[in-house]
């Protein structure tokens, strides 16, 4: 069930995912990610490339190129094990594909390597990935509205992300939290009780994944849910009307 739920959610939002992936940033990133494979496999172009294959076929990968591509696949699989959103999965594939392309182009021809590296740097400096524009069930608070919301109903527990709008990492958690506060605009004077991920003595973040299971466990959401149910039941119990005795006293 843990695997089926996200799969069904992904299929449900698939049309919106396609629309998001067709943004110019991702279209350009896709062509840059497959640039080496395209050049190596395109007839008329690959014929003029050098190769270390024994049969001299310059339109096929040599053993070193296969090793690099296999290593790329292993790295992407390891990184995507901790990815949460579609953005993170796609971002990992694009990033490490470009790194592999740089290595492959430099190995093939230094001039091609320099050209591809320059394109990557220019692309990185001039283009930014589009923000998450898919379906989200998130309420955005300010420093005043969050206090009003918390006091409005004590039975409701909010999971709120205090994020920085300039941080891509914060943007990628859009589908994890129910409420968000931009600390760049609204400063908060609260006291920190717990930090996830934790920071070790050297100031480095300890590895921790923002998965549904981890959030439920670390924030004791099951316990909060049970308390909320008990509180709701106690409030729903009817109270005797003014001037009317309870049924137990009437029977006596």
From TrEMBL:
Ranges for region Disordered: 229-252
GO terms for biological process, alphabetical: brain development
InterPro entries in alphabetical order: Thioredoxin-like_sf, TMX2
Gene Ontology molecular function, alphabetical: disulfide oxidoreductase activity
Positions of transmembrane segments: 20-39, 114-134
Keyword field: Membrane, Transmembrane, Transmembrane helix
Cross-referenced Gene3D superfamilies: Glutaredoxin (3.40.30.10)
Protein name per UniProt: Thioredoxin-related transmembrane protein 2b
UniProt source species: Oryzias sinensis
